[in-house]
Amino acid sequence: MNIVVCIKRVPMTQEVDLEIDADGRGVNREPLAYVINDWDNYAVEEAVLLKEELGGDVTAITIGGEEDEEILRRAMAMGADRSIRIDPGDRVMDSYVVSRVLAEVIKGIEYDLVLTGVQADDDNCGLVGIMLAEHLGLAHAAVVTGFTADGNQATIKIELEGGINEVSKIRLPSLLSIQTGINEPRYVSVIGIKKAKKKDLEVIELGDLPLSDEDLSPRTIIEEVYLPPETEGAQIIEGDPSKVADEIIRILTEKGVNV
After folding, report:
1. pLDDT tens per residue, the chain (259 residues)?
2. Cys-Cys crosslink for 36: which of 17, 71, 154, 247, Cβ 3.0 to 4.6 Å?
3. Using CA atoms, how far apart are residues 140 and 99, in angstroms rounded to an integer?
4. What's the domain count of the chain?
5. Is 34 inside any structural domain?
6. CA 117 to chain centre
7. How far, in Å, are 14, 60, 121, 183, 233 from residue 40 at the CA level?
8. Residue 66: inside a domain
9. Residue 181: which residues within 8 A CB-CB, separation 6 or more?
10. Could you give the CA distance from residue 250 to residue 259 in angstroms, rounded to a whole number?
């Protein structure tokens, strides 16, 4: 089974005091450390597990500059056979443009399955995978937590709301966005990453793709990014339960909540 897995390098924002950048449309990323997007890490592991079980090869793809090649090397250290980096230059991309660019490159690859992460850790968008499937004309499913191939179709397990799971059949080729927990990503050693440097890493310039200015025009434009205003601390209400309930109702009523 030939598999394409799309990955992204994202900043680590946990336990960090974020700062808004100079133009007020994003976060200052210069002091932040970067890692592979968590959901994408599971997608890479699933692709490699399927290759080990069924044969074929795995191609990892990302859009980014030279610094983003580190996650491609990581993917190859995990077991991907080759990698492709699409250099965007100075082009500003939203989810639509990212999916359009990825689709143009993936069209030229022989594949049975395309995997993405459910969403991106930096902007919390979960759009690229589904948009990519539409551009490629593929059957698709999101929030996938299980996959079993059976000829030209597969049985998939999907996480729904409220802790409910759904089991479905899907025709191949298809695109799946992978949820965390579908597997346990393997440890990647420094030696493994060094060995991965010997594997094929192709670089494609955005300008070399047959895409028009309309294709590369963002559909979503960020106007402003700001930190939420600081508010007062929690109000502690003590006393008899009935009196506490009356006080809560009073407070909610004053704030315009119908109770």
Report:
1. 999 999 999 998 877 888 899 888 888 888 899 999 999 999 999 999 999 999 999 999 999 999 999 999 999 999 999 999 999 999 999 999 999 999 999 999 999 999 999 999 988 889 999 999 999 999 999 999 999 999 999 999 999 988 899 999 999 999 999 999 999 999 998 888 888 888 889 999 999 999 999 999 999 989 999 888 887 777 888 889 988 999 999 988 988 888 6
2. 71
3. 14
4. 1
5. yes
6. 4
7. 18, 10, 10, 12, 37
8. yes
9. 42, 145
10. 9
Structure tokens at 140: 């698709």
> What is the domain-level CATH number for residue 58?
3.40.50.620
User: Which of 172, 142, 171 lies closest to 157, judged by CA?
Assistant: 142
Rounded to whole angstroms, the Cα distance separating 41 from 19 reads 27
Closest CA to 231 of 248, 249, 250, 255: 255
Residue with tokens 């200052």: 28
**Residue 44: which domain range?**
3-208
Q: Are 68 and 9 contacting, i.e. CB atoms less than 8 angstroms apart?
A: yes
The verdict on residue 26 lying in a domain is yes
Distances in Å between the Cα of 170 and the Cα atoms of 57, 59, 134, 143, 176 are 21, 22, 15, 14, 10
In a domain, 223, yes or no: no
- Classify residue 221 by burial, with Cβ atoms within 10 Å: 0-12, 13-18, 19+: exposed
pLDDT at residue 57, as a whole number: 96
